[in-house]
Amino acid sequence: MTAARWISLTMLFAGLAFGTLSDRAPKNPVVYLGGYRVLAADFHIHSFPLSWASLGPFDTVEQAKREGLDVIAMTPHNLLWVGQLGRRYAQWTGAPLVISGEEIVSPRYHLLAIGIQRTVSWREPVASAVDAIHAQGGVAIAAHPIKAFWPAYDAAAVRKLDGTEVLHPLAYQNGPGYAELQEFYARANVAAIGDSDFHGLLRIGLCRTLVFVREATEGGVLEAIRARRTVVVDRDGNAYGDPRLIPLVRASPECQRLLDSPAIASAAAPLARWSRILGLLGMAGMLLFGFAPRARDPRQRSR
Amino acid sequence: MRDSPQFRAAEPPAWASSVDVWVMLRPRAAYAWLAASPGDAGKWIALRRPLSVALLLGCMVSLVASQRLTLRHVAGGTLGAFFLLLAQIAVLWIVCGRRRAMPFARLVDIFFAGYGPWILWVLAFSYLWAFLPMEIALKYFWTGSIAVTGGIVMAWSFYLDYRFFRGAMSRGRSGAAWDAARVWLLSWAVCIVIFGWSAVPAEVARIFGR
Predict the structure, then answer these.
(1) How far apart are CA A183 and CA B197, in angstroms?
(2) Which listed CATH number (3.40.50.280, 3.20.20.140, 2.30.42.10, 2.40.340.10) goes with A3-270?
């Protein structure tokens, strides 16, 4: 092995050591406001395998902890078991609260089914799918309802919804996506939800929901969504949700802490920064100087 | 003329810091030289490049998810990627069949020397997602950029695979194109099943308007 390859590998493993040392889960503040416990939540998270995600279910739970989330819903596409694995792991390790769910991916709409035990068929129209979710005690949230999905949401279906994603990574992209989510939310008059729709590339909790619960349990979270006791705030300070709770959130520094990801501050720390720099240099070196020793020259055979 | 023995004997140029870089930029000469080279012996060489590629993919998973390299992300990402690459090795075994002029382990090692464009792409996106604020990365380096650059990398990578079958497997033009296409079709089918199968029936129904 050449010296350059050794140096590349050393940098890569030094980056790995620095990053692992800097990878600590913070303790979330316990916040009470208006007589409710306030929880930071993200209800739209995907895990490997089968749902176009890169982090496995256990790793997803660990990362959610580091992003300062109290509650997450793991929502694989049209199935449940990946989320149920994550839920078991969270019960075993203690935090965060993981609610098992499903993103019903249909040709005409996407719908989050949170707190269910059996999958709901993607072949159902929205209204029937919502009924099936309610029959299991779960809540139904319209997932990124952009204009292309609106025809599936007739008036009867919209009336049955419990929530809609008004904040989603679409809000930070170019294009009309955010305006369409806002328009749908104004029409639906249901709980405001902010979700990251995490697949591995973005940050878990990039968009999040503050949920005002009577008790910090799965039942308490589902009840709060049904009662529309949620607040969502985007990066520009625009707030959506219960109009009685929004001023309380704005006036509370603790709530602002729940809205910010502690992982952003943690990623700016020197150890994490050196982990990135050394890791990327090591990766580049591995490509530049080869994964394997150079093959021998064919003419050596005749010598 | 270009595939003559004289051309095969071309030495690795001074600018090529590694075989992988040489394959990326001059695949015809590099594969011809690799095919003629005695190389390293032993079955383990079938795993060294796939393991290295899996490690780099694991590093990417960690950098984009947590903006640093952590043991849990890198280990999980490497494991997931390695299963995918093992499936690709199985696909290569199916496509190459018994028509091999060299041990299969050596063939796998040479095939994975053509992963350079993907690694370059992984490096570029790891850098962007690890260093840029999330909102900026989302605004400028999201689906559009991923699709365009991914398309370029796919075309480049397909050409390398075509040259692999020409140089290392001594296939004719149409045979090499057909073999490269089969490797791609089967590998992507496995990838789609592992990563995104659960929504595929609904996506198919959407495409066909059902």
Answers:
(1) 32
(2) 3.20.20.140
